[in-house]
């Protein structure tokens, strides 16, 4: 699907392409969402640019993701989609940014791009050129990362409260296995964001350090502001990663303590019942010459020895502070 974005009465508006015959005049941004082969060829022929396949967009080397050709920038950062649905996945967005027109190619719906028109309505003066729209899109993607990291931090705070909470009364004990799963999902998502922020850092460095005379000062200033935000988010992400590692270690430690407590109970029970078992075993032997077998008080004596040996074992454990 091809969507055109152009100015109308000073505001950025969108409409879907009705045909693949010609690109309307005044279009500043062309967005290709899951484009077909025919749509890719149409845009390539109309603009004289190269639209990569989805496999080519996934290449990891910088020379394939960030390059310039005939004054046109080709940039491919990694973004995270599907966060709202609980199924996050890494996706690439391909930017073709020239002096008069911006082209984006993507294969997933992205919240940051859906909200651009509303952002343009609030700040129309910052969305009147292709390079300004490009800077706004990059800013929107980084803002989305920041919002998600803040939400993750709130969830980590709640998980921390569950882990360190002292159960008592009607309060239930934290399900530590479920906590580990939550921490694992947070760590996986954090790794995705680390990769995304790395690619956006490369994109910004490539854009700012290159000699692009047509990249206007407002767009450069916007890109520079995003660069500062990325530095802050990188430190924030590193701190969250350390916190996740700490909470995971604590959770595993608590699980080990619980398991040790259970083993301790069984060990104490085995030791307490060992002396009575020994007494019962001795008097369970059927030798001919056992005087107690014919003694009327032999049975009560054996039972008393069993109870006394168990009680002495319990008293020893309490004296040692093991119970």
UniProtKB/TrEMBL annotation:
It comes from Pseudomonas matsuisoli. The chain crosses the membrane at residues 265-285, 297-317. Pfam families: CorA. One of its GO terms (cellular component) is plasma membrane. Belongs to the CorA metal ion transporter (MIT) (TC 1.A.35) family. It comes from the Bacteria. This is Magnesium transport protein CorA. PANTHER family: MAGNESIUM TRANSPORT PROTEIN CORA. It is found in: Cell inner membrane. Its main location: membrane. Keywords: Cell inner membrane, Cell membrane, Ion transport, Magnesium, Membrane, Transmembrane, Transmembrane helix, Transport. One of its GO terms (molecular function) is cobalt ion transmembrane transporter activity. It is a multi-pass membrane protein. CDD domains: EcCorA-like_u1. The keyword Ribonucleoprotein does not apply. It catalyses: Mg(2+)(in) = Mg(2+)(out).
